[in-house]
């Protein structure tokens, strides 16, 4: 058996920053800190921090007054920030800068009186945060079919934004439908879909043809990981999204000569290596790592955390 190991895969710059941020907060304040929603959408990562003593909450009201609260990589709405201030929480914002970019675009276009069409998945943490920046101005669409039911006219000022972790192909279909119905619609000055999401999808799209089966490391609630699995399935290859080697089924690999392995942007490399070891042990698999595109992006820690670090040093 041959393992076709996709590169790039796994952690993106935003996830790296968020996890490093929480590690540093634990070092500075101890493990009994709080995070609004999952720091990233990955069970392995969340379980690791939970074992250390971190508490993940879905409501600011769950956080005792005066506590340390970290905002997750997916971003939060102004309502959440205000609720945190009212509870006198010490907040640290680990929002991915690429998500912050979309938030700022939403604020800008709302001030300019545009009707904002947000392409994304209802209920996703990132979408909730973005819509919270300008709830009266934003309309959510998920598919190209949704475009037909939009209430806007050809005279209305329109702009579209996108969730950062969408499938490029999926978003492209919606954008095409929007432009067909509203030729005057504005687009964001720079692509909203995250570079890492795009690169990981490109790697799967290029490599899947060589494989008999696709394994994506990532959690079920990770939007970008699900898109990778769907991309494999769309190429008529059996594709599975798993959190780790413990979820692999021996029967999947019978009579399989080549397995493509990749990982979503919130999945750590350790779970990839565990799966490789499983296939080596059970099937004598050999690894062929294939690099489709180099990545050299990194993000600094949040400015409020860097300021606290400086105070501690002084």
UniProtKB/TrEMBL annotation:
[4Fe-4S] cluster binds at residues 12, 96, 194. GO terms for biological process: dimethylallyl diphosphate biosynthetic process; isopentenyl diphosphate biosynthetic process, methylerythritol 4-phosphate pathway; terpenoid biosynthetic process. (2E)-4-hydroxy-3-methylbut-2-enyl diphosphate binds at residues 41, 74, 124, 164, 222-224, 266. Its cofactor is [4Fe-4S] cluster. GO terms for molecular function: 4 iron, 4 sulfur cluster binding; 4-hydroxy-3-methylbut-2-enyl diphosphate reductase activity; metal ion binding. The active site is at 126 (proton donor). Pathway: Isoprenoid biosynthesis; dimethylallyl diphosphate biosynthesis; dimethylallyl diphosphate from (2E)-4-hydroxy-3-methylbutenyl diphosphate: step 1/1; Isoprenoid biosynthesis; isopentenyl diphosphate biosynthesis via DXP pathway; isopentenyl diphosphate from 1-deoxy-D-xylulose 5-phosphate: step 6/6. Belongs to the IspH family. This is 4-hydroxy-3-methylbut-2-enyl diphosphate reductase. It comes from Planctopirus limnophila (strain ATCC 43296 / DSM 3776 / IFAM 1008 / Mu 290) (Planctomyces limnophilus). The gene is ispH.
């Amino acid at each position: 058996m041959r393992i076709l190991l996709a590169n790039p895969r796994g952690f993106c710059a935003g996830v790296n920053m968020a996890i490093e941020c929480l590690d540093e907060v634990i070092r500075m304040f101890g493990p009994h800190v709080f995070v609004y929603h999952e720091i990233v959408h990955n069970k392995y990562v969340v379980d690791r921090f939970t074992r250390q003593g971190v508490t993940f909450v879905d409501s600011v009201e769950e956080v005792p007054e005066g506590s340390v609260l970290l905002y997750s990589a997916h971003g939060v709405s102004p309502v959440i920030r205000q609720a945190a201030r009212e509870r006198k929480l010490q907040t640290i914002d680990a929002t991915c800068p690429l998500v912050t970019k979309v938030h700022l675009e939403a604020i800008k276009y709302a001030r300019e009186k545009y009707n904002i069409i947000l392409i994304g998945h209802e209920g996703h943490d990132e979408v909730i945060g973005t819509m919270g920046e300008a709830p009266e101005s934003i309309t959510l669409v998920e598919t190209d079919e949704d475009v037909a039911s939009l209430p806007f006219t050809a005279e209305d000022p329109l702009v579209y934004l996108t969730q950062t972790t969408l499938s490029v192909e999926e978003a492209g279909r919606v954008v095409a439908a929007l432009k067909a119905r509203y030729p005057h619609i504005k687009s964001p000055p720079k692509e909203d879909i995250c570079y890492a999401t795009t690169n990981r999808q490109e790697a799967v799209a290029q490599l899947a043809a060589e494989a008999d089966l696709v394994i994506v490391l990532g959690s079920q609630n990770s939007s970008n990981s699900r898109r990778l699995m769907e991309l494999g399935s769309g190429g008529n290859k059996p594709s599975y999204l798993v959190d780790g080697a413990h979820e692999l089924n021996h029967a999947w690999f019978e009579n399989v000569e080549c397995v493509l392995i990749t990982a979503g942007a919130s999945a750590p490399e350790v779970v990839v290596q565990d799966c490789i070891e499983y296939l080596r042990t059970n099937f004598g698999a050999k690894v062929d790592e294939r690099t489709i595109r180099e990545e050299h992006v990194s993000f600094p820690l949040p400015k409020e955390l860097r300021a606290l670090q400086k105070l501690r040093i002084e």
